[in-house]
Amino acid sequence: MPRALLFGTPVSPGIAIGELRFKHNTRLIERRRISPREIAKEQSMLRDAASSVREALREAMDKVPEDMAEYREVIAAQIELARDPKLLDKAGKVIEKDLICASWALENTVEELCDIFRKMDNPYLRDRAQDIRAVGLRLRACLAGTESEELEAAILAAEDLSPADVMEMDFKGIQAVVTAEGGPTSHTAILSRGLHIPALVGVTGLLNTALHGDRVIVDGLKGCILLDPDEKDIKQYESRRTDYLAWENRTRKEARWPAEMTDGVRVAVQANLERAEEADDLAATGADGVGLYRTEFSFLREQLPDEEALFAEYDCVARKIAPERVVFRTLDCGADKMLAAQEALREPNPALGLRGIRFCLRHQGIFRTQLRALMRAGITGNMAIMLPMISGREEILAVRRIMQELHQQLQAEGLPHADQLPLGIMVETPSAVLIADTLARECDFFSIGTNDLIHYLIAIDRNNAHVSHLAEALHPAVVRSLKRVIDAAHREGIGVSVCGELAADPYGLAILLGMGVDSVSASPRFISGMKHMIRRLDAKFCDELAHSVLMSTDVSVSQRILRERLQAVLGPELAFHTTSILTESRP
Ligand code: PEP
Ligand code: MG
After folding, report:
1. Which atom of ligand 1 is nearest to the CA of 500?
2. Which of 35, 76, 200, 481 is 20 to 30 A removed from 583 (C-alpha atoms)?
3. β-bridge mates for residue 383, sequence order
4. Binding residues for phosphoenolpyruvate, per the UniProt record (predicted)?
5. Pick the CATH number of 1-24+148-246 from 3.50.30.10, 3.40.47.10, 3.40.630.40, 3.50.50.60
6. What is the distance, to the nearest Å, from the Cα of residue 405 to the centroid of all Cα atoms in its chain?
7. Is 451 annotated as a binding residue?
8. 256 marked ligand binding residue
């Protein structure tokens, strides 16, 4: 491999040096010619793969909850396909006729069948092409059999990682994560930060340039990967790593100092968590409580959790965080956080589909179980409930009605619970921005989810690398929306926080402080650095900065203003913060 530099979006800071290990790279299909003697072996491998895939699908089917009948149907159809002679016998014959290995024969057969189905007039039959492809991918992964490779001291590389992949893996030995797909707010990014592993997403050329086993340097501050570094590179990066770690250590030592600006204005800096264990050492990060607890991760496991398991999780987190508050966000599945069973439904456009509160109000069995667990946990600690993906007032009212019913049920059952927990919403859809005043009258607090809001406002998929360059946080539509929501909340007398990644971006943070946000919430990884930065700013400076950006209609002018003014105040420290707003500082 020649020495080369690949660029991606830095999503978790730090520098790592190590060897690349690829996880299920679906583009690397084995294409091998075989001798007639190998025909029987390849055919039998194909049959074995088909039976393992059927078994795995049956297990998945058993775990689909009763009230999700449509998902069961999709999985049942895939089980049928995994034994369909049109697919398997045909691929078996291709192995024999063309003398090619099972993976290659399978790929050709899947493509041919998909083509036939795609051309059919009947829309139901046309859609079967997706099922054939899905089963083909499972069979291929099974034939490749690379899923359980040793990941000790490795730099994990992949086309993309789903939250479910991340949940399954043991990250202990992993030094850094790099993916070809994914945006800065993907869950790979969020989880890597939680695990303190440097990460880059959307790395151009990763799949065609880098190879399994290559020695590389991952620069999670500037957003690049250096392939085949020489001794000089390694020395230089080791020294950069030392400087960065020294700064990080200093901010950690001061983590518990309050986030008070030079003119005395204080802001709460809270943590975004996704797993109960993260609550253990939260105090050391300096967080003023938890502004966002993403509850979906325990639902991404194979088996949906029951009320007792959820109650135990929420009760344990609330106790650990008390007396500080923890805001539990109800299940936000769909789009980039598909439940295993939901994935089978393959909605044509899941980001605009049944996600967040929409899914919960449709599948109320799952939602009510979660709300009961939350209400029961609410008697200890200091808790609030937050609803994701709200797009209209009716959704909040529906949840209030459900909570009222659950209160009566729990009372009748004699189960202690809290019936007056503060109820807030995520503001992350354009409709919520436009009716922020109306929504503020129905709930107790707002938290702006800039990860989704930026994407929905500009109409881009947050996990699509082809349009990630358009995800512009300084777009005037975004900046004006933020101001509008913050002002509406304050006019209606409720507090407003920002829990999207923008809050941890040094430029984003400065603007949000200037707009008067009450609190910010980010990955624990960033908290000490954010507090350190806040202590070096003053509220008047931030107010003027936000005003200049709000007045600007040109993103590059806003970028220049931010870069020049913050550089003047923060100096070299600015380079130690991860930004996706201004990424021109590449080596
Ligand atoms: C957001 O959308 O900004 C957010 C915090 O939620 P998530 O990233 O989990 O969608
Ligand atoms: Mg969101």
Report:
1. 3
2. 481
3. 326
4. 294, 329, 451-452, 462
5. 3.50.30.10
6. 33
7. yes
8. no
One digit per residue, the tens of pLDDT, for the chain of length 587 reads 567 899 888 888 899 999 998 875 555 567 789 999 999 999 999 999 899 888 877 877 776 666 556 567 777 888 888 888 888 999 999 999 999 999 889 988 988 888 887 777 665 666 677 678 778 877 887 887 654 455 556 899 988 776 555 555 667 788 999 998 776 656 677 667 767 889 998 898 888 888 878 899 999 888 899 999 999 999 999 988 898 999 999 999 999 999 999 999 999 999 999 888 889 989 999 999 999 999 988 887 767 899 999 999 999 999 999 999 999 999 999 877 777 777 777 788 888 999 999 999 999 999 999 999 999 999 998 999 999 999 999 999 999 999 999 999 999 999 999 999 999 999 999 999 999 999 999 999 999 999 999 999 999 887 676 887 888 999 999 999 999 999 999 999 999 999 998 999 999 999 999 999 999 999 898 999 999 999 999 999 999 999 999 999 999 999 999 999 999 999 988 888 888 777 654 44
Helix or strand holding residue 293 (H, E): strand 290-294
CA of 245 to the centre of ligand 2 (A): 31
Residue type, 372: R
Question: Can you list the positions of beta strands (E) in 419-477?
Answer: 423-427, 445-448
CA of 452 to the centre of ligand 1 (A): 6
| CATH number given to 254-585 | 3.20.20.60
If you measure from the C-alpha of residue 530 to the centroid of ligand 2, how many angstroms do you get, rounded to a whole number? 21
Report the alpha-carbon distance of residue 221 to residue 500 in Å, rounded. Answer: 19
Ordered by start, the domain boundaries in the chain are 1-24+148-246, 254-585
329 is in an annotated binding site: yes
> Which amino acid is located at 565 in the chain?
R
What is this structure's pTM? 0.76
Torsion of CA 93, 98, 104, 108, to 10 degrees: -70
Give catalytic status of residue 499 as yes or no.
Answer: yes
Can you name the residues that pair with 327 across neighbouring β-strands? 384
